[in-house]
Design a protein that fits this description.
- The N and C termini lie far apart (about 40 Å).
- This protein is of the alpha/beta class.
- The strands form two sheets. Strands 5-4-3-6-7-9-8 form a seven-stranded mixed beta sheet, sandwiched between helices. The protein has a two-stranded antiparallel ribbon with strand order 1-2.
- The chain contains twelve helices and nine strands.
Length: about 350
C-alpha cells in the first residue's frame, strides 16, 4: 500500500491488470429472481457460530476455507449464474498476494458497471464514485463510457491531484469526468446518480457510501468493501504472527495518529459503535460489542470479513435493494416496486 494523504491505499489501485473482453449486460430479471431466493440470514448465523466457537484465523486457512465454502457457497454459485466470469485467485487467502488480487476484482467491477450501463436504454447515466482517492477507477469508467457523466469525490484532493498530474497525457482528452472535493459523511444529496460505486472504501466509509446510494435513491450500487477492521471507529487489530496481520497493525498505527490529527476525515460520529450492526436482522443475533470484536479479527479472518458484509447485505435489503454478494463485491439494484 501507499499513502494517499487520507489513508493507506492498496497498491492494486495503481497497478491493475488490463481489462478483459467486454461482458454481456446482466439480466436484471434473473438477478432479482435469484437474489430474492437467497437466504442471507442463515449464513450470517452459521458464520457467527463459527466465530463464537473461535474457529477463525487458523494458520493454514483450511478450516476457514471449509466454513466459507459450506456457508457462502450458495451465494457464490448464485453470483456465477447471474454474473459469470468472476476472476479466479490462485493464491492462499489472507496473504499479501491475495490482497493484491483485489485489483483483478476491481477491474471485474468496472466491467460489470460498463456492461450494465451499455445494456440500459437510457441515453446518459450519472455515475458517482465516492471515496475515489486517486480517481483511477472513475477515470477508467469515464473513458469506457463516453456518453456518461462520471463524478469522483473525496474529502482530500491530494491523491487525485497527484494521479492527475502523473497521468495527464493518458486522460488529457477526457471531458466527462469531474472531481469534487466532498466528504462521504456529508455528501451532496441533490445529485441523482444512476450508479453509485466504490472500489475499496475502507471501514465505515463503505457504510457512508451505501447510505449515500440509499439517500439519493440510486438504482444501482456496485462496489467492493475494504479494511473491515475500521468500522465503528476501530483501529485495533488482534495480533497474530502473520505478515498480513503485521501489515494491518502498522496501517492502523498510522491511521490512529491521522485520525487524531484530522478528525472527521476518515471516521464519523454517525458511524460509531452504536451504528453497528447495520441491519435489524443482525441486531437480533449480535450486539455492538460482538461486531467490534469481529472487526478487530478481520485482518486474518475471511469469516469475520464476511460477517460484516452479510450485515451490510441485509441492511441494503431492508432499505429497498435486492443484493448479491461475493468476496467483498456487492451488486445491488433497487427493487422495482420501491424505486422512486
Amino acid at each position: 500500500m501507499i499513502w494517499s494523504g487520507r489513508t493507506l491505499v492498496p497498491l492494486s489501485l495503481w497497478l491493475l491488470p488490463a481489462e478483459s473482453e467486454p461482458m454481456p449486460g446482466p439480466n436484471l430479471r434473473a438477478f432479482h429472481e435469484t437474489s430474492r431466493k437467497l437466504d442471507l440470514r442463515q449464513p450470517l448465523e452459521f458464520l457467527l457460530a463459527e466465530f463464537r466457537r473461535g474457529n477463525i484465523a487458523d494458520s493454514k486457512r483450511g478450516g476457514e476455507d471449509s466454513a466459507i465454502r459450506a456457508h457462502l457457497g450458495g451465494l457464490s454459485a448464485a453470483w456465477e449464474r447471474v454474473f459469470p466470469g468472476f476472476p479466479a485467485c490462485p493464491w492462499r487467502r489472507r496473504t499479501l498476494t491475495w490482497e493484491y488480487h483485489r485489483g483483478r476484482r476491481d477491474a471485474y467491477l468496472r466491467q460489470l458497471i460498463a456492461a450494465q450501463v451499455s445494456a440500459d436504454q437510457t441515453d446518459c447515466f450519472l455515475i458517482v464514485n465516492p471515496a475515489t482517492v486517486l480517481g483511477r477507477h472513475a477515470r477508467a469508467l469515464a473513458e469506457a463510457l463516453p456518453a456518461c457523466e462520471v463524478i469522483g469525490t473525496d474529502i482530500d484532493p491530494r491523491g487525485e491531484r497527484v494521479y492527475r498530474i502523473l497521468n495527464f497525457w493518458k486522460y488529457r482528452g477526457l471531458t466527462n469526468y469531474q472531481f469534487v472535493r466532498e466528504s462521504i459523511f456529508e455528501p451532496d444529496l441533490k445529485r441523482r446518480p444512476a450508479v453509485v460505486t466504490f472500489f475499496g472504501a475502507c471501514g465505515s466509509v463503505s457504510d457512508g457510501c451505501m447510505d449515500y446510494a440509499i439517500a439519493t435513491d440510486s438504482p444501482f450500487l456496485i462496489c467492493r468493501t475494504c479494511c473491515h477492521d475500521n468500522i465503528a471507529g476501530n483501529t485495533q487489530v488482534i495480533r497474530r504472527p502473520t505478515h498480513i496481520n503485521r501489515f494491518f497493525a502498522f496501517k492502523n498505527w498510522g491511521l490512529e495518529r491521522y485520525k487524531r490529527a484530522r478528525p472527521g476525515f476518515y471516521f464519523s460520529d454517525r458511524y460509531r459503535e452504536n451504528a453497528y450492526p447495520r441491519s435489524a436482522a443482525a441486531r437480533e443475533l449480535m450486539d455492538t460489542e460482538t461486531i467490534v470484536s469481529i472487526a478487530q479479527n478481520t485482518a486474518d479472518s475471511d469469516i469475520c470479513r464476511s460477517l460484516i458484509d452479510l450485515d451490510r447485505c441485509l441492511y441494503l435489503r431492508e432499505n429497498g435493494y435486492d443484493v448479491m454478494y461475493r468476496e467483498e463485491l456487492f451488486f445491488a439494484h433497487r427493487r422495482p416496486e420501491v424505486a422512486g
